[in-house]
Specification:
single chain; 333 residues; alpha/beta; 7-stranded parallel β-sheet; 5-stranded parallel β-sheet; 11 helices; globular
Length: 333
Amino acid sequence: MRRRMNILFFGTKSYDKQFFEELLKNGNYHDLEITFIEPNLSSETARLADGFEAVCAFVNMDLSEKTVRTLHKCGVKLILMRCAGFNNVDLDVAKECGMKIMRVPGYSPEAVAEHAMALVLTADRHMHKAYIKCRENNFNLAGLMGVNLYGKTAGIVGTGKIGAAMARICHGFGMRVIGYDMYPNKSLDFMEYVDFDHLLAEADLISLHCPLTEENYHLINKDTISKMKDGVMLVNTSRGALIKTDDLIQGIRDGKFFAVGLDVYEEETGTVYEDMSDRILEHSTMARLLSFPNVMVTSHQGFFTVEALEAISRTTLDNALAYVEGRESGNEL
């Protein structure tokens, strides 16, 4: 007799439920039973998992030591991360508790890379400002001048699947592409690999596509910003803490950056994916970033395409099924 596994799905949004329920209904996932709830997973809400064998969490949730230990006390044996990143998970404590963690290492690299280029184009050509002006019947071009990307140098920091997709997009725009990575991607025959300081000095556009580690925490800071070209464009669709935000703000004020595009930022935990339009933000950093006319900010939506959500749902459920059947999925941490 096949056993069933019950999964508590934290932080449910309408689109999550839509894509997961579609697969549960039409796919071969009869051994899985999901309970969807709205609260995000945190040390306070972890006790809701009492009686569940598995929980499903996302990149914006708190899986620190206290949360993981509470889940363990509730009998949770499996943590399904429906995302690629896991810097918010205390892996050591999970291992100590004998809990398995599985993730979605790749869903749609092109989705994130295309969003990164959308940020570049929007911030460069001031699309957000132009749209608002035209909505108000103001067709004056003052303040909307951009620069060509063609012939410029794109510096890609991290050339895994997403970074490689961004590199191909930049190459398609007629840009010279240089990259920095400890493990060069041999498929990118058009890319020139350089050291990090060389990339900072040469790139007209710097795009961050590396995971967050202890080594690269605040990779972009006062010192590294000083090594960049004046008038550089900076885009981050990876992890907010790659950039020391106070130093970035000072750099923007000093006129170092022509344009900045951010899909991730240090203060996003607790606010990202939530409607905060009727509240005053507790932190001033985001307000300061939004005050600059050459900064474009989005809400960690680089992954948010139909294709990516389908892939995330399928891989997450495949991971759960592999666990139930005692198989390795290759997505274990």
